[in-house]
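Lecture 7 notes: from sequence to structure.
We start with the chain below.
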Amino acid sequence: MRIWIFNHYAAPPDCAAGTRHYELGRVLATKGHDVTVFASSFSHFSRREERLAPGEKVATRTIDGVHFVWVRTPTYTGNGYRRVLNMAHYAVRVLAAQRSLNRPDVIVGSSVHLAAVLAAWRVARARHARFVVEVRDLWPQTLIDMGALRANGLPAKLLRLVESFCCRRASAVICLLPGAADYLEGRGVPTHKIHYVPNGIADLPRQVDPAQPAGPNVAHPGSQAADLIDRIRRFRKDGCLTAGYIGSHGPANGVATIVSAAAELRSVGHPRVAVVLVGDGQEKAACLRLAHRYGLDDVLFWPPVPKQAVPAVLAELDVTLFCLRDVAVFKYGLSSNKLFDYLASGKPVLFASNAPGGPVRESGGGVCVPAESPEAVAGALAGLAAMSDTERERMGERGRRWVYRHHGMTSLADAFLAAVSEPAWRGGPATEVLL
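Predicted structure tokens for the same chain:
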């Protein structure tokens, strides 16, 4: 089967970005399927052009059997009009980039933003291909619950219309969140159309292509990851329990809670915990100012590292940190890449979120505390520091076994293939979706 995936932010593991479709694609490639991912060459995570040379508008590359088509989009720094312009350019550019390629059997339009999904529908219609919607983030509901949009405002209403339009015309709707089916059914999506295919962890060894440039050498002195590992080892040599967060520093993540928890530990005279925060995002500057105000020399901020370097960094930590703000949309659950990476590392996870269920609770691979509670995070860190190495190892091993059993990418790829292979429902007229 020839499968196209329109995912603005997709990437292979050579940078700090989401690799869901690379991982699914390389498993499907081993089964004889042809997978092409259309993505932006400008990285949302590093805020720089990463794929195209000056003057290039499109480039293609095959990585571990997965074809990537990168299209040039405008630069931006925040979440203002330039990011909206970037989204619009992506949708227009992929329409042009696909014209010279052989017709696909199915096209998957993957949110975050709905312009990518609309573009997928337009191309699927023109190419007489099956159209599938993949809901990674609930737009516009997430924006409404985060306070970025008014529920009754014109932008939210327009996004609702697009959401409904796309879901009506899709042969299948793939959702990543365990509770998203309730949301989609509430929007009028028929139950039989909805397929739950969450994120997961790679369980297929990566190939090494000698014709392609080598990726960053994690162990090479002077590399970002190697220098970070050296700093973590120094913390541990000084007798500190070292807890680390690797991911976006965005409004939903609540990284400031971790900084405030470190200040709480300092205020009660607990010297044995060091915190490492790896990543970037619009809230990072505020977190840096907060740490400076508290005088926290045991909180280390570090720039993003490539996804393929993440396992080596996690291996050096004692505890991994996951936090989210208390936002209503998280009632539908989570399917976070970094959470699965944490569990796969075999290190305990300190999970600070009010989202129901979740792999940490289900696996017993960590400690769960309420969202936005520095005191609770500080208490949990102190408790983990008081454990023996053996106790923490046993906790982490429970999480590791669970995530490979339930979220291995090979079985998830089979579920993804089943969803995109399902023909459009022919039992009657399209079900009306609520506006």
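Points to note: The longest strand covers residues 34-40. The two ends are 34 Å apart (CA to CA).
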